[in-house]
Sequence to fold (350 residues):
Amino acid sequence: MAFTTGELSSIANAALDFHFKGQPLPQSIQDKPLLKLMEAGRKNFPGGKGDITRPVKGKYEFEGGQATNPGDLSGYTHDDTVAYGNIAGIERAKFPWREVHTGWNCTLTELKIDGITVVDSAMGKGTSNHSKREVTAITNIMQDKIETFSEIISKQMNDMLWGDGTTDPLGFLGVQYFVTDTPAVGVTGGLDRATMPWWRNRYKSIATASEQIPEVFHSEWRQLRRFGGKPNLVLAGSDFLDALIVQLREKGYYTDRGWKQSNATDISIADVSYNGITFQYDPTMDDLGFEKRCYVLDTRRLYMYAMDQEWGKDHNPARPHDIYAIFKAKTYTGQMCADQLNCHGLYEIA
Fold:
C-alpha cells in the first residue's frame, strides 16, 4: 500500500487549505495585536511599477517661503496693484512593494520512517488502496507541519511588521520605520523629516518620577488629533503598563461596602483605556526590548497594501530530479505604507 507523489501533494494541499481558510495569517501561540490589526485593515493595489505612492501635503501657503508672498491676503484701495501667487506643495510618499517567501518540504525518508511508502511515479501504477493507518499517519504528519508552518509565518510576519526595514532590505517595512524616537531626523517614504515638520510622528520620553502618564496622554491625545488624526490602536510593553497601573493605584483604594466583605479587597485592575481605546499588551514589544514603550497608532493612516491575488499565494514546486521530497510555499507581495505621520505617537518611560 503506497501513496503517489500526486496523492501526497494533494493531502498536503488539503491540510493547507483547511488550516488557512478564513484566516490569511492565523494568530496563535502568542498574541500579536499589531499583525491582527494590519491584516484586518489590509488594502489592495494592482500590479505595476515598483512603488506604491501616496499623495501627501503639509504646506498650505503660496510659493516663495518668505514672511509675505505674492498672493497673500492683504489690503488694497482704489487702483493699488495687487499680486497673485502660485500654489503648489503636493508631495508623494513612495514605498517600493516587496515580495516575501516562506516554504517547507517533507522528505520521503521522513515518511518511510513512519511506515509510509511513496510511489515516485507520475502515473502511480502498481498502487493499491490505502489502509486507515496510513491515511491517519500521513494526515497527522501533514497537520503537524502545517500548524508549525502557520505559526512560523505568523511570528516572522509580525516581527517584520514591527521592524524598521533594515534587517531584510527586501522585506516589508515595519512600524519602527514610520514611528521613531528621532522624528526630526531621517527620510520616510522619500520625504525628509528634517525639512518637513508636518511629516513627523509625536515622541515623548516620560520621567515617571515627576510626570503622570495619564496627564501626558491627556495632553498628547489632543496633539495626535490636532491635524485630523483618530488614534485607534495603543500597544504597550509590560514595564510601561506596570508603571501606568502603579500610578493609577497610587491614587488610592476606596470601598463603600467595608473591607471585610467578599471581594472587597480584590486587587485586580481592569484593562486600562483612554478615550475608549484600550492599552493592549503586545508581547512582541518585550521580545524586542521595548518593555518601556507605548505606541499610539491611527491605522487609517498606517496600513498594509497587498497586491491583488498575490497575498498568501500558494506554490507547489515540482520535485527537483536530485531531491526526494515534496515542497510547499507561500508568498506575500505588498508593503506597509503611511499617508500621515503626525497622528502617530511613541511614548517611553525612563
